[in-house]
Amino acid sequence: MIDLNADRAIANAPLPTTATLRRRNNLLIQGWRFVTLNLRMYLMVLKGNH
Amino acid sequence: MARIVILGAGISGHTAALHLRRQLSRQHDVVVVSPNSKWNWIPSNIWVGVGKMSKEQVTFPLAPIYRRQHIEFHQALATEIHPEGSSENPTPFVSIRYTDPLRESESATLEYDYLINATGPQLNFGATPGLGPDGGHTVSVCSAAHATEARARLDESIEVMRQGRRQTLVIGMGHGTCTCEGAAFEYAFNVEHELRQAGVRDLADVVYFTNEAELGDFGVGGMTFGQQGFETTSKLWTESLFRERGVRAVLGAHAERIEDGVIHYEQLDGTHHELAFDFAMLLPPFRGAGLKVFDREGRDVSERVFLPSGFMRVDAHYDAKPFEEWRASDWPESYESPAYPNVFAVGIAFAPPHQISRPRTSPNGTVITPAPPRTGMPSGVMGKTVALTIIDRIKMGGDARAHHASMASMGAACVASAGTGLRKGSAAAMTMYPVVPDYQTYPESGRSLKDTTGEIGLAGHWIKFMLHVMFIYKAKARPLWFLIPE
Ligand SMILES: Cc1cc2nc3c(=O)[nH]c(=O)nc-3n(C[C@H](O)[C@H](O)[C@H](O)COP(=O)(O)OP(=O)(O)OC[C@H]3O[C@@H](n4cnc5c(N)ncnc54)[C@H](O)[C@@H]3O)c2cc1C
After folding, report:
1. pTM
2. What b/e sequence results for B16-36 when a residue is b if at least 16 CB atoms lie within 10 Å of its CB, and e otherwise?
């Protein structure tokens, strides 16, 4: 049975820690994520183009 | 000499036109029919809708590009397909009605050897009374013009909050069968970001109103990610973002009618409710373009080529069957019409065999299930794939094998913006492989755990912005455009 009570689900969801929030905005870490995410997306395109 | 007519100059049609022109000599004609004079990078309409980009930054005129590329362009609406020609002339043709202001209300016919239907969605605001910007009570971000209007209404709402009055902003889906949940999700979080920037967040209730039964479904049945040795779901991940940003949600909802400031809706459990709003951006459900098809004798044979939804039948398996029996192989690979093999449909114009999310109906019989999304990346890939098939058939003969690109063996990257700004922006970047779950190959979750990922951060925003720059560059057919993948 699905639970349509979104308020409850949202209230029980985990919150990111301060460290996670910092990581999400840290220029060095995000620069690295930018490179790896692009690579991942590019590989995905290649995988789909067979 | 062959003549290829492409109906629609959106992501899939324009991609097909550019690849055809690049690989076919000038003795062959590539013809594009599209009612708008401008090309629109639709994903960035979200940013127009919050005032971070102008209409001009997300559109450009098509005619100069097509002139430079030697592509024949008709600013017109296709109305009829005559795949058997007429009783006098067996050459297939399409009928068009010009929207070009210089030729307004003129009609014409265009003969073709190959036809690509890339007409995308017709925005079906009429499905919900009171929905939409034209005579309704809600705004939309589906076109750059709609998004400009949405921005003006959002500014009015922000102004009211600056005067100290609370506002409820509802963003989501205007019908139980809508698709593009990702776009509504993005707009909700961009609006939330704008409210914080404007210093009025504490006076705003932001509500995401959706036909998804769970957050994180996105019309693809949700995703399971492999993360640091654990499996986690897009549901948990999305709920976490909603909690962090204080956005509420209404789930499993079908908007029945919209009055000034009130959405009347039914939920999956069959209950009926009202939701008051001051600002509402609700996406419409989609239909096909409504093209008619006639045989040689002039008889209407549209139902042989199109489903009642107006989307075109292609090489998919359309027989109705329960969710448990859905297979990856139900999805089309070559996008050829079974009725007329020289006719193809790509992007949103092709009829999917069924949804991707589990189908759900309320006890009152109302279908409340996201329609399957056909996002930009698969749409572009389909456009290119069909272009390659046609090129082979022109160069090697009509029997050349079709190129294949099934959504069940294709990945997609979805970068959902959650706020703009080079230092303060953020986006949820998701990759999934394949788009359509394949439980035979990936019994655990239907998708590769390695290739299905999600993360939130500034890098996602940079990628979204980079895609904006890259795809507009590509669509303008600037030097080496073809090196940019679809
Ligand atoms: C607000 C919004 C945000 C989105 N964000 C993303 C995103 O971030 N990432 C992503 O991958 N996807 C996104 N999408 C989805 C993406 O825009 C679509 O997948 C894509 O545009 C589909 O391409 P298409 O060629 O099928 O249709 P379209 O791009 O819509 O093109 C259809 C074309 O056909 C023309 N046409 C219509 N009727 C006729 C006719 N009768 N005759 C001739 N021409 C006709 C139209 O004018 C248009 O030029 C978003 C969609 C929306 C609405």
Report:
1. 0.95
2. bbbbbbebbeeebbbbbbbbb
